[in-house]
Amino acid sequence: MTTLDFRSRRSVASVYSAAFRTRFAVASMIQGSIVAIVTPMHPDGRVDFDALDRLVDWHVAEGTDGIVAVGTTGESPTLSVEEHVEVMRRIVQRAGKRVPVIGGTGANSTTEAIELTAAAREVGCDAALLVTPYYNKPPQEGMYRHYKAIAEAVDIPQILYNVPGRTGVDLLPATVARLARVPRIVGLKEAKGDMARVRELRALDLPKTFALYSGDDATARESILAGFHGDISVTANVVPGPMHRVCKAALAGDAAKAAELDAPLAGLHRDLFCEANPIPVKWALEQMGRASAGIRLPLVPLSPTSHDTVRAALRAAGAI
């Protein structure tokens, strides 16, 4: 797909069809450990599609319940439009419907977000994940209209994504409640890392089909035990099997087992963020022999002063 082809595709038909209802049902069933997968790169910064294929196969084999393609962990800010679409396409093709794929399609331009979301639909993603508009800092009404416009334009299930520490804006629970009633908006990834916010969201009168996902590995287990439906995870990049088991136990309401399984991963939840994500997780995957630590400016490889910290967390989790 060329840039011209992509840019010329504005909105798709907004008919609430039987086909869409099927896609809605698929999205509403995505629960458990959903990896926010890295985009592997060669040392010179080119996307390493062979390594990406291997990672997808590994995640499927290890029980990962879903894959987010080209989120923040996938370096969405530095991929070109063509690369962004091609990485989504490649993950969809490699997954081969073995696990659902969610395309990261958020932007701080509503028009751009609509175009990326339409592309995710075109390449076969099961849903789209849309981060709050960053840097321009819209008010709550602006965020409501932004998300509503995307939902009205593109026939694909859409998941809101709130991460105030990165975007500079906080999608408040009252706005989430309004958006949860917009057709095609099917869930929220909440990455504030605050259990008080988790409780606020759980107290809302949300549609039964609206899914809540943690976006903070350190509090994901507690969030799921409190009623969330899964974790969109960075940690799952390096320990997909263990993260799947933690989420499965928490979804079953087995707090003791979930805590036992999660305890060895606590260092990863913390230390994979010792420098800006995805710097540490890419270095970790290289240490595991899974992918090169290639990364694009303005991010740089993990500082040597952090190597021992991340390596110790990997060892404690049994990843190396």
Automatic annotation (TrEMBL):
<feature type="site" description="Part of a proton relay during catalysis">
    <location>
        <position position="72"/>
    </location>
</feature>
<protein>
    <recommendedName>
        <fullName>4-hydroxy-tetrahydrodipicolinate synthase</fullName>
        <ecNumber>4.3.3.7</ecNumber>
    </recommendedName>
</protein>
<comment type="similarity">
    <text>Belongs to the DapA family.</text>
</comment>
<feature type="active site" description="Proton donor/acceptor">
    <location>
        <position position="161"/>
    </location>
</feature>
<keyword id="KW-0028">Amino-acid biosynthesis</keyword>
<keyword id="KW-0704">Schiff base</keyword>
<dbReference type="InterPro" id="IPR002220">
    <property type="entry name" value="DapA-like"/>
</dbReference>
<keyword id="KW-0963">Cytoplasm</keyword>
<dbReference type="InterPro" id="IPR013785">
    <property type="entry name" value="Aldolase_TIM"/>
</dbReference>
<keyword id="KW-0456">Lyase</keyword>
<comment type="function">
    <text>Catalyzes the condensation of (S)-aspartate-beta-semialdehyde [(S)-ASA] and pyruvate to 4-hydroxy-tetrahydrodipicolinate (HTPA).</text>
</comment>
<dbReference type="GO" id="GO:0008840">
    <property type="term" value="F:4-hydroxy-tetrahydrodipicolinate synthase activity"/>
</dbReference>
<dbReference type="InterPro" id="IPR020625">
    <property type="entry name" value="Schiff_base-form_aldolases_AS"/>
</dbReference>
<keyword id="KW-0220">Diaminopimelate biosynthesis</keyword>
<feature type="binding site">
    <location>
        <position position="232"/>
    </location>
    <ligand>
        <name>pyruvate</name>
    </ligand>
</feature>
<dbReference type="GO" id="GO:0019877">
    <property type="term" value="P:diaminopimelate biosynthetic process"/>
</dbReference>
<feature type="active site" description="Schiff-base intermediate with substrate">
    <location>
        <position position="161"/>
    </location>
</feature>
<dbReference type="Pfam" id="PF00701">
    <property type="entry name" value="DHDPS"/>
</dbReference>
<feature type="binding site">
    <location>
        <position position="73"/>
    </location>
    <ligand>
        <name>pyruvate</name>
    </ligand>
</feature>
<keyword id="KW-0457">Lysine biosynthesis</keyword>
<dbReference type="GO" id="GO:0009089">
    <property type="term" value="P:lysine biosynthetic process via diaminopimelate"/>
</dbReference>
<dbReference type="InterPro" id="IPR020624">
    <property type="entry name" value="Schiff_base-form_aldolases_CS"/>
</dbReference>
<dbReference type="InterPro" id="IPR005263">
    <property type="entry name" value="DapA"/>
</dbReference>
<feature type="site" description="Part of a proton relay during catalysis">
    <location>
        <position position="135"/>
    </location>
</feature>
<comment type="subunit">
    <text>Homotetramer; dimer of dimers.</text>
</comment>
<comment type="pathway">
    <text>Amino-acid biosynthesis; L-lysine biosynthesis via DAP pathway; (S)-tetrahydrodipicolinate from L-aspartate: step 3/4.</text>
</comment>
<dbReference type="GO" id="GO:0005829">
    <property type="term" value="C:cytosol"/>
</dbReference>
<feature type="active site" description="Schiff-base intermediate with substrate">
    <location>
        <position position="189"/>
    </location>
</feature>
